Amino acid sequence: QVQLVESGGGLVQAGDSLRLSCTTSGRTLSAHVITWFRQAPGKEREFVAGISWPGASIYYADSVKGRFTISRDNAKNTVSLQMNSLKPEDTAAYYCAARFSATQQIAARPNDYDYWGQGTQVTVSS
Question: What string of DSSP letters covers 3-24?
Fold first, then answer.
């Protein structure tokens, strides 16, 4: 069982930056693809960024490409999402998710992930 905990959300103004972290207690994240999703009120959960293990492959949603950076520190079992130039449309609850994958394929569908954190709220005011 992988237990994920997100942190780093908050209320910021448009153009500001935030850094989200996803960590696990106990079990290692090795051989797990880690992906950030987000869900705004009334909308479906959507893919934001994903990273394979140990970090060779990274994918971003078009909406965040060039503004967000995903990275992982395998020694600390932590995956981070650096969010720059935040926009009001980035407002959502952000979740990290993990899936074990022998091929390290980064899946974009929430149903492809086995483990989820509780989420952290990001609110960007205009």
Answer: -EEEE--EEEETT--EEEEEEE
Residue 102: band (very low, low, confident or very high) from pLDDT cuts 50, 70, 90: confident
Burial class (CB within 10 angstroms; exposed 0-12, middle 13-18, buried 19+) of 54: exposed
List, for residues 36-64, the tens digit of each pLDDT value: 999 999 999 999 999 999 988 999 999 99
Q: What are phi and psi of 116, to 5 degrees?
A: -135, 150
Alpha carbon distances (Å) from 111 to 37, 47, 98, 116: 12, 11, 11, 11
Whether 24 and 3 have beta carbons less than 8 Å apart is answered as: yes
Dihedral Cα 81, 86, 92, 93, nearest 10 deg: 30
Provide the residue type at 92 as one letter.
A
Burial classification of residue 68, based on how many CB atoms lie within 10 Å of its CB (0-12 exposed, 13-18 middle, 19 or more buried): buried
